[in-house]
Amino acid sequence: MKKQISAYETYTLAELINDQDFLVWVLHPDEQSDSHWRRIENTYPQLTEPIRQGKAIVQSMKFEKEDLSLKDQNEIWNAIQSETTSRKTPVRKLWYRYAAAAVLAGVLLGIGILYQVNQPIAINTPYGKLKTITLPDGSLVTLNANSTIKYDRNWDKNGIREVWIEGEAFLKVKHLNTSGKVLDRERFVVHTGNVNVEVLGTSFNVNDRRGRTEVALLEGKISLGLNGAVGKPLVLSPGDIAAFEHGKLMVKPINVAEYASWKDGRLNFNNVPVAKIFDYFEDVYGYKVVVDDQEILKKRVSGSMSTQNEQVLFKTLGMALNLNFNLNQDTKQLMITSK
Amino acid sequence: MPESTEPQYWQSFKAGNADSFEYLYKTYAAGLYNYGSKFSKDKDLIKECIQDLFVGIWTRRATLGNPDHLKNYLYKSFRHLVFRKTLQLQNFEVYEEETDTYSFHVSLNMEEAIIDGEQRDKVTEQLNMVMAKLTPRQKEAIFLRFYEQLSYEEIAEVMDISVKASYKIMARALGFLKENLSKDDLMLLSLLLHLRLLN
């Protein structure tokens, strides 16, 4: 029921905004309410100004809007059309995310902004793609394909720097300790399924796949501790690789630079069993490797090849091993047969 | 375009008419984009979800029903896609849509016309500070009610909750705003927001 017009005589701006009828009128005006308020204004001219202001305030409260540009709208539409109209020729999906490195960097930034202060940032890579991530302290992480890194959005100025990794990553940690006692803020800890890696400033490779964790150290010093274990941590020297498997931690020297060469778009093999390389293809490219002859798996290979182009990589390897590589994109099967 | 023709477009789209499909896309793309951008700052993710949504309904057009409210249906499906895609990106072990683990960002602004610059900035800033403290669900409900002007029933449908829960979420959100927006300048806005949302 609407109030008597006389009730409005002494209304202030605040009271107007507080008035349900006034709000309903401003938000959903109709002929009836229009004339009702016109009458009020005519009867009490002193209300003209408060009504004008009140209307402005009510109408001004709005949500910020994110506009879809016409260009973007058309771009999405074209992508939809290419996926819906031509059935015969498989059209590649418009994966905006992977369009270019520059876009990628922007997206990473976007992902960073996405989460609330206390929520961890989680970045993962699809099959066949690497990402380089700069952590809040300036440390660099190269994430191999099919891998995930998580870390807190904001790093406490005085807290330990911590990241969680699944898959494989190469880390170049910024050295903060300059002298004497190591403060918490100078510590950097990488958590994997089984192993915690504690570092000061250094570069190393972490590989946590298939229930096995490998940590290879390029330079600096790191110590490894097992999750939940109290014992003395294991200290690695540059050139060492530590592997944790079936509850045991083992250390041996390797050529670590070669080992972590994936981050530069190359793979180096030094008398490596082919089976191991195929595991790598499954982990990193998401292909199921099928061989027609188990003997193939016993071959060994040495050499260095580029991973920039999958086709070229397979061809090179095929030539080196005298094998045929046939990729079925639909089933994601990589068929390997003897020539 | 009068609203009564939308079911006709939907029928024609289901029969495979490409023009009707385009009409639906053009009608909803911008709104979906705006809605999606509240969940994620990753614009490309939102665009991919819009693409997936429309490719999806086109592919399944023969088996789709006749939703009472097409907008709700699209928003709801789109919301699922955004969650799923975010989940893929995050790869969290535990991800429950039903808890408040997602994020929803809204920010309010005021037109320059009414209050002078400095005071406007102050009011807007304070209001947004309080808004930021609401849970994602509360913010999303407010957005759907306030901006998209959905009813409580429609909010419940889009957010996949009971109607009772949608009332409850809103009441909590408004209670919180009221409690935290009670000083001087904010008084007006608090009352204003309160009443508008309860209408």
Nutshell version of this structure?
Chain B: Keywords: Sigma factor, Transcription, Transcription regulation. Chain B: InterPro entries: RNA_pol_sigma-70-like, RNA_pol_sigma-70_dom, RNA_pol_sigma70_r4_t2, RNA_pol_sigma_r2, RNA_pol_sigma_r3/r4-like, WH-like_DNA-bd_sf. The complex is a heterodimer of chains A (339) and B (199). Chain A is of the alpha+beta class and 339 residues long.
State the CATH topology of the largest domain in chain B: Rna Polymerase Sigma Factor, Chain: A
CATH hierarchy class name of the largest domain in chain A: Mainly Beta
Rg measurement of chain A, Å: 31 Å
Number of helices of chain B: 9
Supply the CATH architecture of the largest domain in chain A.
Sandwich
User: What is the approximate shape of chain B?
Assistant: elongated
Low-confidence stretches of chain A: 87-118
Report low-confidence residues of chain B grouped into runs of 5 or more. 91-99, 194-199
The span between the termini of chain A is: 90 Å
- Number of DSSP strand runs of chain A: 19
Q: Roughly how much helix do the residues of chain B carry, as a percent range?
A: 55-70%
Structural class by secondary-structure content of chain A:
alpha+beta
Q: How many domains make up the coordinates of chain B?
A: 2
Could you describe the largest sheet of chain B, including whether it forms a barrel? none
What is the count of helical runs of chain A? 9
Work out the largest interface and the residue count of each chain: A-B, 50 and 53 residues
Sheet/helix structural class of chain B: mainly alpha
Q: State the total count of DSSP E strands of chain B.
A: 1
Global geometry of chain A: elongated
Estimated share of beta-strand residues of chain A = 25-35%
The helix/strand order of chain B is HHHHEHHHHH
Domain Protein FecR C-terminal (chain A): 266-330
Transmembrane segments (chain A): 95-115
Pfam family, one (chain A): FecR_C
Keywords (chain A): Membrane, Transmembrane, Transmembrane helix
